[in-house]
């Protein structure tokens, strides 16, 4: 949904069109049977071409068929184009791997009914079907078209969603995430199901408006090599933000990563004077 944002302290229609923070990935299977990650999470992204600041926003959660019953407030968030923001939600009893360092850890929830919520670690989300909304304030969202809705995602059997249909259902081992950060206001088109890939602000992002258009890796699902489509000096980061490999590459060359374990990595580099990064999954 396209709403009004604070862009460097100035409100304008142009800023809204070019800089928007939306929900990028949702995962509710944290800590469940078969899950790798111990926590549920919601990841935001600035899909625009300019830095943007979001103030006074909330996340609101609902089961697939019910009304939004609770929310938690987010701190002020400023993201560069393409930069992601990781919000840690409730912990399950299983899982073997903590999330990358969250940008925000959800704790106290506030019920719209006025009753006390006993949760101390954020939303305990469904692992399959749900509704999640990024709102501009703490007013209860009733519909995806409400004036305070920044972004609305219905998942699986959700009875509300943006566009023609909901995003695919999740499982204990899969999340739903945007396809290249695209937001057409249609959950069925914008989201796909896949392996959870939580990313915090230090792991993914670009430094200027042109960089978001630069793609320097041919394929983001890789095995033992990464194929590059541009000349760059690159660093490969683990999900914990550690540099695991550095190299100088050229257009059409491949980089051997057979020594790296399977999982999610971020490849950062400087291409034609632009600092860019892309997330890869080594299978």
Give the helix/strand class.
mainly beta
- Overall 3D geometry? globular
Give the spatial strand order of the biggest sheet: 8-7-2-1-12-13
Beta-sheet strand percentage? 35-45%
Q: What would you give as the CATH superfamily of the largest domain?
A: Lamin Tail domain
**CATH uppermost class of the largest domain:** Mainly Beta
The radius of gyration is 19 Å
Give the ordered list of helices and strands: HEEEEEEEEEEEEHEEEEEEEE
Mean pLDDT: 85
Report the CATH architecture of the largest domain. Sandwich
Task: List the total number of helices.
Answer: 2
Give a count of the beta strands, DSSP E runs of length 2 or more.
20
Helix content range: under 10%
Count of discrete structural domains: 2
Distance between the termini: 34 Å
Write a structural description.
- With 283 residues, this protein is mainly beta.
- It has two domains: 13-194, Sandwich (Immunoglobulin-like), CATH 2.60.40; 214-282, Immunoglobulin-like (Sandwich), CATH 2.60.40.
- The chain contains two helices and 20 strands.
- Strand 4 (58-63) and strand 5 (70-73) form a beta hairpin.
- It is globular.
- Residues 2-19 and 205-213 have low confidence and may be disordered.
SSE map:
Layout: H1 13-18, E1 21-27, E2 39-46, E3 52-54, E4 58-63, E5 70-73, E6 77-79, E7 84-91, E8 104-105, E9 110-111, E10 130-135, E11 149-155, E12 175-178, H2 187-190, E13 191-194, E14 221-222, E15 225-227, E16 232-237, E17 243-249, E18 254-256, E19 263-271, E20 274-282
Parallel strand pairs: 7-8, 14-20
Antiparallel strand pairs: 1-2, 1-12, 2-7, 3-6, 4-5, 4-10, 5-9, 10-11, 12-13, 15-18, 16-17, 16-19, 19-20
């Amino acid at each position: 949904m396209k709403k009004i944002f604070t862009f460097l302290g100035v409100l304008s229609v142009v800023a809204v069109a070019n800089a928007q923070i939306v929900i990028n990935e949702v995962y509710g299977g944290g800590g469940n049977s078969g899950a790798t990650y111990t926590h549920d999470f919601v990841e935001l992204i600035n899909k625009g071409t300019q830095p943007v600041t979001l103030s006074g926003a909330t996340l609101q959660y609902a089961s697939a068929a019910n009304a939004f019953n609770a929310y938690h407030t987010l701190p002020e968030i400023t993201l560069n184009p393409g930069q992601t923001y990781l919000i840690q939600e409730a912990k399950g009893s299983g899982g073997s791997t903590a999330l990358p360092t969250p940008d925000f850890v959800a704790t106290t929830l506030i019920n719209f009914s006025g009753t006390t919520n006993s949760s101390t670690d954020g939303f305990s989300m469904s692992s399959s079907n749900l509704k999640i909304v990024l709102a501009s304030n703490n007013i209860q969202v009733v519909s995806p078209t409400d004036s305070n809705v920044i972004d609305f995602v219905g998942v699986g059997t959700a009875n509300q969603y943006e566009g023609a249909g909901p995003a695919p259902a999740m499982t204990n081992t899969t999340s739903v995430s945007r396809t290249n950060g695209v937001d057409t206001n249609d959950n069925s088109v914008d989201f796909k199901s896949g392996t959870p890939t939580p990313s915090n602000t230090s792991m993914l992002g670009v430094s200027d408006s042109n960089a978001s258009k630069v793609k320097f890796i041919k394929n983001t699902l890789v095995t033992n090599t990464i194929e590059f489509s541009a000349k760059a000096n690159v660093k490969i980061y683990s999900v914990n933000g550690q540099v695991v490999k550095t190299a100088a590459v050229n257009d059409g060359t491949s980089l051997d990563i057979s020594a790296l374990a399977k999982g999610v990595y971020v490849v950062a580099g400087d291409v034609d004077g632009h600092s860019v990064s892309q997330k890869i999954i080594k299978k």
